[in-house]
Amino acid sequence: MLKKIKFDKWLIEVNVDQTSDYYKRDLEVCDCLDCTNFIKACMFMTPPVSEFFYSLGIDPQKPAHLSRFPGEGSMHQYIGNYHFIGRVLEGELCTNLNWIDKNTISIENFILGLSKELVFVPEDFPKPIVQLDFEVVIPWVIIEDD
Q1: Residues 14, 7: contact at Cβ < 8 Å?
Q2: Which stretch of DSSP H or E encloses residue 3?
Q3: Residue 40 and residue 138: Cα distance in Å, rounded?
């Protein structure tokens, strides 16, 4: 069942239960060191960030796509995306080339945008689909063996 939710600049309809059921499945998640660090860091998300993801039915430890870029010191920049079942009713959408304050929101250290572009969508993901893009700077939290 679609539920209307207002987040800052957006009014969306989301099927939280169906999205959550999808994320509860055994989804393939990259296990490289960079992705493993992000997944482990998700365990330390602040309540406002984790509540945002879970309010959409998204498990933040299961991104559809993830890339890491070097940051300053022990910090690392990640970009990626998730998907949820729903639609955007109000608010400006972003693209990779149009990622600005007007079409993104900030929650703690996450910058989030709802994208016009659908990429890395699993073939069996139910429709209608909204893509949630993000950018975040987080510390390296895993301990590597020498």
Answers
A1: no
A2: strand 3-7
A3: 11
